[in-house]
Amino acid sequence: MGPFGEDPPAMRSGEIVDGRFELESKAGTGGMGTIWRARDLATQETVALKVLRDPDHGVDRFLAEARILARLEHPTIVRHVGHGVTSAGEPYLVMEWLAGEDLATRLSRGPLEIDASLALVRRVAEALGAAHARGVVHRDIKPSNIFLVERRFDRIKLLDFGIARLSSGDVLTRPSSVLGTPGYMAPEQARGDEVVGPRADVFSLGCVLFECLAGRPAFQGSHPMALLAKLLLEEPPELAIVRPDVSAPVSSLCARMLSKIPAQRPADGAALAAELASIPVTTSSSSPSVRSIPASRLSDSERRLLSIVAIAAGGRSSLDEVRRVAEPLGASVDALAGGTVLMVMRGAGNATDQAARAARAALTIHAASTARVIGLVTGRSDLADRLPVGELVELVAFLLDRARKNGRSGVIVDDVTRSLLDPRFEIEEQAGHAWLVREHARGDEIRTLLGNPSPFVGRERELRGLVELLEQEFDEQRAQAVLVTGPAGMGKSRLRQELLTELGRRVPDLGLAVGRADVMRSGAAFSVIASALRMLMQIEVGERRELQQQKVSAAVGALLSAEAAEGTAPFLGELVGAAFPDERNPRLRSARENAHLMAERIEAAWVEFMRAASRARPTLLVLEDLHWGDVSSVKLVDTALRELRDEPFAVVAFARPEIHDMFPRLWAERAQEVRLGPLPRRAATALVRSALGDDASEAFVVALVDRSEGNAFYLEELVRAVTEGRSGVLPETVLGMVEARLAALPSDVRHFLRAASVFGEVFWPNGVRRLLGGRRPVNVDAALDEAVAREIVTRRSSRRFVGEEEYAFRHALLREGAYAMLTERDRVLGHGLAGGWLERVGEPDPAVLAMHFERGGKGSRAAHWHARAAQTAMRGNDLQAGLRAVERGLAAGPADEVATDLWALRARIASASGDYEASLAAAEEALRRTTPGSIAHYIALEGAIGGAMLLGRHETLHDLSRRVLATEPAPNALSALARALAPLIAALAGSGDGDAFVFLEKLRAIMAATMDVEPSRAGALAYASAMVEKNLGRNPWLAREHALDAVRYLEQGGERHVVPVAAAMLVGVCTELGAFEEAESWLERTAARPSSMAAHVAAAYSGQLRLAQGRFEEAITISGAVADRAHGKDGNVVSAIGRLTLIEAHVERGAVAEAETLIDATSSREYPFVAAACAWFRARLLLARGRAAQAVTVARDALNLHWRIGPRGLERVLLTLAEALMAAGETQAARRALRDACDELDAREAAIGDPVYRRHFLTRVPANVRIRRLGREWS
After folding, report:
1. Mean of the pLDDT values across residues 840-850?
2. Contacts of residue 888, Cβ cutoff 8 Å, sequence gap at least 6
3. Separation between Cα atoms, residue 321 and residue 236, nearest integer Å
4. CATH number given to 459-675
5. Residue 450's pLDDT band (boundaries 50, 70, 90)?
């Protein structure tokens, strides 16, 4: 036959199979065969004929399905028509033809109604009951094997008995192979049990029921191994949680169907059908509603650190080996179908300890069979009664796949585990993955940070003290013990390394023995001393016993006489596990028969050996991790300190503070203790700087140091996270360490802290009560008292809410650790409940409420508060924060009204930020949604007007102005209308459009009608008035007064994002008045409160300021930059101002050619004032070239253009005309033009209300100075 999945060459449409079935067309594939639509010539009915695709494989199972179907008759089981073998020797099976769709196809469109789901499952249960009664277990119940005839739920057919178990008990597949579909098979199938009964089908049907109602599978995973593991280890969520309208009886039945323990499920299909029949039928006409979380209370579950060791298939013997390793660690072990074994280590103790235990377990298992592939991962998962493993199983399955593809055996580890392991664990990189190779005995390797040895900082004083003490005791030949204690991560290992390095330099003949306690052998007699002696004698685990004995004898013989060595070596051999033969050694033999005698002789041998070693040279015994040590070793050390008190013998032990609980009064009166506290801030800062360099800001470094809580390990991991782009996320390695502290607390206290962490670093007991209320509330007062006593939280003297006591976590790390222990369900539920509580007590910060509702899955409420947060941010001129709030609000799924507000805000923010295209687009979207005359309508118009103005979209601007005139504002929308009119008036005035006066009068009428001096409206009016007076009037002093009012009112009204624009205008107004110092001051204030629009406007006016001051080069640089910033094809008003200033600067400095080039490149169609200014520039250039007659003509044209747009700058044009006329010999006309210029100047001067400003106006502005001088000269 052809390749797998292709039809056998002999099969063709029209062919008659076995003289009875005529093939019509191929319908597809299913189970193990190719399916044909055929006609039964005996009955003329349409049938489905399935032919085995590969006769060399699966024949037994194919024929078994045929035999099973032949003996099963039930209306819900697909009907058997016949079976046999084709003429080509291929087995075939004929069944009734079905039209419709399978359940999997239907579920792809969403969940089912409750009644439809129960009816469907009941019919399948009845069919299974009939099969079970005949001794048949289906073993592959899943949605694709349940067919909806004509897509009806009351016409069900159960398909595909291809892996059903026969009543004879025949096993059709080899043991441990996977039979069934991962995600639907029962746990006993996932384990590969050989005996699988009817309850397995009940479990699978429970998976189907869950999916019908929940709209998602009960067990999900991207990898088959992960699915099998979840079937064994995870519990699906309660059905009532994901589908709240499901009744309690249905939820309870589904939970029992999905029990991991077969005996807790209904016995078979018939029993299940009977239970389903007893559940009352409900009527539901609405569409099924599936939600994730009910609004109730936080659960007792928590997320904790897990480590998983996965051993790829190695037969049943590997399961026993893994259990032997797992038993002392308290780990659970499960075997999956296919032979993979999982060892799950629950978080207990420190995260680094757990990773080390898991790593040693993996190495131990691998040592028993080096051909195996083992995966090791560490991470966080939800913990309840069982051990759900979630994404961790997916990760370890991925790692095993990677290892197989690389063709390498060994232990492959994930990044989190690798980070938690200390340097004594050797890691090898290959193909982008980390492989655990071995664990070194001494652990001399220095921990690296970003590829370099981590700097030794903050422990110099302790190091100096230890070195001096030990040197002194060695010199004076006195025994001494030092105990160095400190919490995990405080730098004990690094201090030990530096101590041994320094002593090795100062005491060259130092004898050194290093013993290390191990959690896997914690409490085992003599384990610590044994490891020290093995290191000293260079004995390796796994060596031949004879070789080990030789090494013991050699080490002892080098220090003792032959006779003494002969009596000492055998008992040291007992210590190190190198048992000597006792046939010729009665002392050894008698000791082995008497435990008390053995202990005495081991102690004597130990003391004798250590005395000889100390007399030969100063000897140092270093004991690591003694908090995992054993009493026997501690007693041996105590004896040695007593017996060798006059020898150069020293002991330095390193341990965590809990050693005092393990060994009270350790070596009392014989030891000094050195307690390692948090790293000093200076040292911690130096560590960060050594890694990140000087580029990191001081504030950022301080934040990292504060967050580390003085813990060197935390700090290094935080630095590593920053360099990997994870600065906003606390590293899993640090969370795991914090978790160890929290895990030691009682469960109710942990429950309380998890709830408190939802609020942030600060929380309120009554708020926590809201999250913890329900059927079994936590005693909040007792839990709070315990948390205070344990120094986890502290009471605050200040209060945010009236009548609400306030507490805070003592450190951000503690809060983050508690928060990380929340399950995803509790995290979402908690934030929703916290948001509601804070809303009720009057939380004033909308961003806080928005965050809680967003994280709580309450999108519409989150969007409402995001909109409020955006408004608050804009009042504070924090445009970036405002934009983030708007975008998050839009993403949250807002209600229509809120969405409109958000789009309008988006337009305002984009305009203020200088993104005018986005402003215009957002404003149009908002206008499409708004009601004309509403607040949102005018906010949207404001954004659109600003965008159109600064993009130079004149037609759009006039269209928007018509919209403003066409709408009648709602009573509550007057402020919004005022804010929209202000930029419109400014745009019209800035472009020289006289319609600005029409809209200014409309704005004044609004203010007069309301008799309301609301600051925002007053500020808008003042700003508009200033723009009109500046650009269309002849009174710069009045423009200044209006602009000052605008700044004052806008600040009072909280419109801080607009204030910089008004302040920027004052730069231009004061420049026209000659008040250069004041202009500089406003320029500085604008820079201090930046916004993109204000910065652009201020830059344009600063160019004019530099020009007026005669600083032409600076004016050219600044104005050139402004001119280049054009946002539309026609440019914009501000860019046009910059271009005109640039031209004038070239004119003033006599750069005629450059000025002419710029004038030629400037479109006079942009704005009327541009055409007028360019005409004036041309007249000046013609005059400079000595072409007076042409200059007169062009100057008169410029004068006419200026009269059309208002009197601003008229005196300058009249001055140029006067000079041109004088040069052309028209003296009288020149004098008349100059008199007009003087009159215009006098009118402006007379309006200035301050003599100092009048003087500056006449003596500092270049054109005014020239007019006055020529007036005197020509008179």
Report:
1. 89
2. 850, 854, 862, 866
3. 30
4. 3.40.50.300
5. low
Q: How far is CA 977 from the centre of its chain?
A: 41
Give CA–CA dist 1096/990, Å, rounded.
14
pLDDT digits over 1022-1069, tens only? 999 999 999 888 899 999 999 999 999 988 887 777 788 889 999 999
Integer Cα distance of 59 and 91 in angstroms: 8
CB 372 within 8 A of CB 314: yes
Q: So what's the pLDDT on residue 1092?
A: 62
The distance of Cα 611 from the centroid of its chain, to the nearest Å, equals 59
1096-1274 under CATH 1.25.40.10, yes or no: yes
Domain residue limits, the chain = 16-96, 106-113+136-143+153-277, 302-439, 459-675, 1096-1274
Q: Are strands 649-655 and 480-485 parallel, antiparallel or unpaired?
A: parallel
> Mean pLDDT throughout 342-352?
75
Rounded Cα distance between 576 and 1102, Å, is 85
What are 203-221's pLDDT values in tens digits? 999 999 999 999 999 888 7
Q: What's the mean pLDDT in 173-198?
A: 72
Tell me the three state secondary structure of residue 414: coil
717 pLDDT above the threshold of 80: no
Residue 107, Cα to own-chain centre: how many angstroms? 31
Tokens representing 725?
């782009």
Distance of CA 991 to the CA centre of its chain: 48
Q: Is the pTM of this model over 0.90?
A: no
Cα(528)–Cα(330) distance, integer angstroms: 22
302-439 classified as CATH 3.40.50.280: no
In single-letter form, the type of residue at position 958 comes to H
Looking at residue 383, what is its pLDDT?
62
| Cα gap 297→776, rounded to integer Å | 10
The pLDDT tens digits of the residues spanning 468-515 come to 999 999 999 999 999 999 988 788 888 998 999 999 899 989 999 998
> Rounded CA gap, 516 and 500, in Å?
15
Q: Which residues contact 1225 (CB under 8 A, 6 or more apart)?
A: 1188
Q: Which residues does 314 contact at the CB level (< 8 Å), separation at least 6? A: 339, 341, 369, 372
Give the residue carrying structure tokens 């033999």.
Answer: 589
Q: What is the DSSP string of 270-320?
A: HHHHHHHHTSPP----SPP---S--SS---S-EEEEEEEEEE----HHHHH
Go through 519-549 and write b for each residue having 16 or more CB atoms within 10 A of its CB, e for each that does not. Answer: bebbebebbbbbbbbbbbbebeeeeeeeebb
Q: Which helix (H) or strand (E) holds 962?
A: helix 954-966
CATH number of 106-113+136-143+153-277: 1.10.510.10
DSSP letter string over 1038-1073?
Answer: HHHHHHHHHHHHHHHTT-TTTHHHHHHHHHHHHHHH
- State the CATH class of domain 16-96: alpha beta
Closest CA to 32 of 147, 161, 196: 161
The residue type at 853: F
